[in-house]
Every structure is written in C-alpha cells, then in structure tokens.
Amino acid sequence: MELLEPILPQATNVIHSSDIALVGGISISILPYIGMCISDLIAVFWDDERISATVPRNGESDFPVIVLIPEKLTPVGQHTVYYEVENTVGLASFSEPITITVD
User: Fold this and answer.
1) 93 lies in a domain?
2) Counted domains in the chain
3) Is residue 8 domain-resident?
4) Per the count of CB atoms within 10 A, which of 29, 35, 63, 96 is most buried?
5) What gap in Å lies between CA 61 and CA 71, rounded to an integer?
C-alpha cells in the first residue's frame, strides 16, 4: 500500500517555537490512502518514537486523522515524522519521513 506523506498544517520545512506554543504542540494530519480498511492501525512516529495509534472505524469519515505532537517533544532542532499503517493480517506500510526544523 502506498501512503502519502503526513501533512503539517503549521509549517512547510520550518516551524517556530512560538507557533508550537500557541496550540500546545505540532499538528500532524493523515489523509485517506488507497487500500484503506476499517480496523487498520495507524501509528504516528516522531523521531522514531511512537506517539499515537488509532484505529479508524468509519472509513473515510474518520479522516483526516489528526495527531498533536506535545510541545515538550518539540525542542529546537531537526525532527522526523512519519506514520505506519498495519492491516488486520499484520502487513505494515510506512509513509516517507518528513524532516521538520523547529526554531
């Protein structure tokens, strides 16, 4: 399954600490993907640490999936974000990682 990159509505490549403080973190959006199924497990990773996992139950109406990376995990510097989708038989696909700079 081919996954789209996660979307960071607050930034393109750089996000300012002041913008992060306004919402208490960095918002990550995951759009619907080809081949999605009810009961897929969607896990978001920030700097290779699993931050969130969710299981959509209502198909496309559960999208976009929105995850907030807590401000305490977003110090100044470069960070990587990506997500994994694991289907009900255990097959996993990963999105391409995005590198974001917090300043």
Assistant:
1) yes
2) 1
3) no
4) 63
5) 28
Q: Is residue 9 part of a domain?
A: no
Residues 19 and 26: their CA atoms lie apart, in Å, by: 9
Query: What tens digit of pLDDT does each residue of 43-90 get?
Result: 999 999 999 999 988 888 899 999 999 999 999 999 999 999 999 889
CATH number at residue 26: 2.60.40
* DSSP 8-state secondary structure symbol assigned to residue 39: T
| Alpha-carbon span 32 to 17, nearest angstrom | 29
Structure tokens at 30: 């995951």
| CA distances in angstroms from 8 to 39, 57, 102, listed in the order given | 24, 23, 12
**How would you classify the pairing of strands 49-54 and 92-94?**
unpaired
